[in-house]
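Crash report, auto-generated. Payload:
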Amino acid sequence: MKFSLIFLLLALTSCSKKEAESERTAHSEPAWDASFFSPKTGEILSYRETIESISPQKNLPISPDQIRKRVLKRRQVYDGSELIEGKTLHRYSIYHDGSFTEGFLFHWVNGFLYVVGSFTEDQKITFANPPIPIAHLNMIAGTYWHWPPQAPAGSGSRHIGLEQITVPAGTFDAYKVSIRKNTQGKITLREYWFAPKIGIVKEQNRIYSSGHLRVINTIELSDRSTSDTSDTSEEAPSEST
Amino acid sequence: MRISLIFFTLLMGLLSLPARERPLSFVSDPSFMLPEETRESLDLFLRTRSHKTQSEIFLLLEPLPEATADESKAILKDLGHSWSEKNWAIIAYRPGQINPPLIVAGGPLFKEVNPSAWEKEITTLQDLSLQSWQNTPDIDFLARKLSDSLVFFSQFKSATIQSLTKNRNEEFRKKYRSHKSKKALILTISTLSLLALGLLCFLSRKAYLAKRKMFFPETNWTSRLGAPHSGGSAAAQRFTPPSE
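Recovered output after restart:
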């Protein structure tokens, strides 16, 4: 009797693991619209990332030598999709100068592209609550995405419009989205350009705290390739997307 | 509020502009306050925005005669109306001034836009432009962000996507909760199983002890001379099964 209970306990735990594994393997949910968000497994987006910052103790006036500038090579690799908790999530791994730094899970549903979570190198997943909207199939200039719902007025995403933007990888027609976040005296201005079929081609974050600009972080798309042909970059789309 | 106070107290001496033609460039910078590259890039940006949207931004970086804030605003408003029929904004800044740049806007948009929302927008941008790493306001940043704001406000749609996002958030919260409850269920079952196991062990031990046969030694006491007075006795112990 004593041993049968132990067996029961062991069986219970092994079942829950198997269920979780089976959830993460198969994926059959079709892509919502292949023309807008259609990453290919092994696709690599290479970015040039520039981080300019001053230490929190520094106050105005700032001399140029007090500004710390770092330039990094950022690679964003599409690892493919998988079914997690009944949803087809798209995995992107981010590498800085060749080292894995973090991964993101995207969900493409009902015309919306969301960042729903992140994962670490040992595949530990953390879900964002709430998920963050990145793009929409029918992005209309002047639309305001108020998120999260409990955020103070002024926070959220603003869709500015479709613009032609030139980055080292080429010239793209991209939707510009501007996000302003104000939390306890720390203001974050984020703006990014999202090109359909490609993803984010440029992004700039400005972080203000204690009444000063502290960090300017800029990423620009420098190359597009696949893991099989990592040295060949694709041309930028010439027609408006 | 802070910015308003600054306008009314410190903006003495900014602008007093006679009527003048619409400038050829969107960036009027006769004193070369901005680096050439920045000036050209900004002008191109504002020109593109002017062609592709219903919004125009004019930048006046000029040392101008003194005037009160109200007078300056009135003059700039007249200029703006004479320069553009679109939605427009003028950023006026005298090189060297410590106050934030003056911003005046107008156009069809302002018949509909909530004035307090726009005022708040401008105040935020002015404030952020002063937080740059230079000793002067970040004019390039201000002009680009103001242009974004003007484009956004002029096309502002009701946030219909918000409801979709909300639904989506609720859906995820439910999923998250169910995920958590599954974990809690497994934990509860495990705890209960362990408790049941402990109880079973205790009961089976008790039953075993109740049924156990005990063997006790039989002791025969032999009297010894003088024993009642000096104490002591001689005992012989034999271990045998209990007598029936």
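Post-recovery validation: Chain B touches chain A at residues 52-53, 120, 124, 128, 131-135, 145, 148, 151-157, 159-162, 164-166, 168-169, 172-173, 175-176, 179, 182, 186, 189-190, 193-194, 196-197, 200-201, 204 (CB under 8 Å).
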